Amino acid sequence: xxxxxxxxxxxxxxxxxxxxxxxxxxxxxxxxxxxxxxxxxxxxxxxxxxxxxxxxxxxxxxxxxxxxxxxxxxxxxxxxxxxxxxxxxxxxxxxxxxxxxxxxxxxxxxxxxxxxxxxxxxxxxxxxxxxxxxxxxxxxxxxxxxxxxxxxxxxxxxxxxxxxxxxxxxxxxxxxxxxxxxxxxxxxxxxxxxxxxxxxxxxxxxxxxxxxxxxxxxxxxxxxxxxxxxxxxxxxxxxxxxxxx
Length: 245
What we know:
By secondary structure, this protein is an alpha+beta fold. Helix content is 38%, strand content 16%.
């Protein structure tokens, strides 16, 4: 890049990174790309659902610009004394496959994208808590469709009250390995938190609201045993439910 362009990019990188650091005490490469205006959050959401094969495909910059921005970002982070913390990024789909960042898939480049930079002002305990929060896998999302005239692209079974949208089309609960989960409606925050914590597998159930033009949370799918334990801890009676979702 021309020295003038490099300096301009360095100023933009610094401004975007400083703003993010001030807001949350850490900066991820993804935060930088969003701050630079190179990554649309909606496009990032598609990548997290594996509807895009690698992140660089949806970044609004060429590979030369990306490489230079990442180098400038690391220089900025090092000069600020930030602490590197590598995080595993997994997809927001059943099975939790790892997400790919770069076109090449080279491990050295992937590691750079996975490395977050944390403020040294945080205590060790705070850094550990932050690392746990950042690395926590995103919630799986299951859709309650408005109509049941759909067909699972895997088993070709028709209809059903819940589905997972995959690249190839809708998939039923049995095919994505969640057919044994039970539905816990929204409304009881304490029960929801406990049931989710006790369920190794869970998913958020959403339904599209025509009036609000958005998906709205309806409840959770959780493991029956986890829900039973949560209800017992809260002194609630056993719940009768249909396990076939």
